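Entry for the shared binder. Reason: the reviewer on the internal report wants the predicted structure included alongside the sequence.
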Amino acid sequence: MSFVGSFGRGQLRMGWGRLNRCGESVRLEKVLQKGMAFRWREIDEGRTWAGVVKDRLVVLRQEAEEVEYWLEPGQEPLDETLADYFNLRVKCHKLMKTFAEKDENIAMAIPLVHGTRVLRLDPVECLFSFICSSNNNVKRISSMVNFLAAQYGRYVAEYEGHQFYAFPTISELCDKATEQELRENGFGYRARYIVGAARALQERGSEKWLLQLRGENRNQVSEKLVELPGIGKKVASCIALFSLDKHDEIPIDTHIWKMTVSKYMPSLKGKSLTNAVYDQIGDHYRTLFGDMAGWAQTVLFVTVFDDYHRGTSTSKKRKTEKRKAQKTEPGLKAEEECFGEAIPPKEEDMYFSPVDSSENVTGKLEPLLHSEENLTMSPSSLLSPSEDSFDGKPKKRKPTKRRSPRIQDMANGAC
């Protein structure tokens, strides 16, 4: 196992240390590639993963029910750092048992998603990752977040031919990132949001302000987050749940909306997902699952996520052949994982206005959910798309050029 980094060159011989000494189950494939974190590198078919946690290179290995980490010579053990990252203070086994007693859907899902946990991410990286996630797919989000780290962050180490970087601080983003450069590298409208959010955070107190939100209640956190450029209800929910200790926050994307209408709140069928309905859904899950409802939502999301991918993989060949046989219109979407906004972005969001909780979203969401264009991103969107639309209406895209080399390289393997 060879590393190159700030600590020098050579073979590391300290060996592997156990992470989950407290007996909490962690399955790396269930937490590192399910839309919470976007910069982990899968090394050998899900058994070994490499990433950066608190500016340190971390190499993890799955061994049956155990997770091990590689400890380099002269470095402090990572037990506390990783226990915090994987939220091991939460006794997930007992929590899932409680959920299963309350809800048959959770009871059926738990065996399928054994080892799923809610991560406790760095708030800065989490916030900018989910700004990138708006109407986007996992591969492209990862490319964007890796670009931010490689372009503006500090080099950490090289492992197995991949270079790893710390995510930039708010100050580094303010000093180095420009809207023009981000647009040139495939970020589209998100470029303005990233630059605007970095400046807004710096004005509020930077990292210290974000960390202080961990001590405030869920409603206060949501209200403050949606005041930032590029952050609406769903993005704020993700940031709050995955980095700010708001375990009762419920992110609602298109997948969770469809499942909620189908299995929990059929009375919502045919209705628009307004901000008031968004809160109503969250309250329903909080009433059902209590102050850890976000963990129940994560189990349900991972179940839907896995089901979606199983269906997509089995039908991919058939759909590819069908697309080749038919003449498709520009902008026709191919199925791929997408973090679609259940509440479509509104025009005023372009000017960094906070979402008005009393304002309805134009049009019915139910027809949009069945629109392939609204739910998915086309293969061409993994290259360099034309500017993304902000009005929430499906639009045809013109044929586009390939993405700039940096983002394309990120998508092809650079970290």
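Summary line for the report: The radius of gyration is 21 Å.
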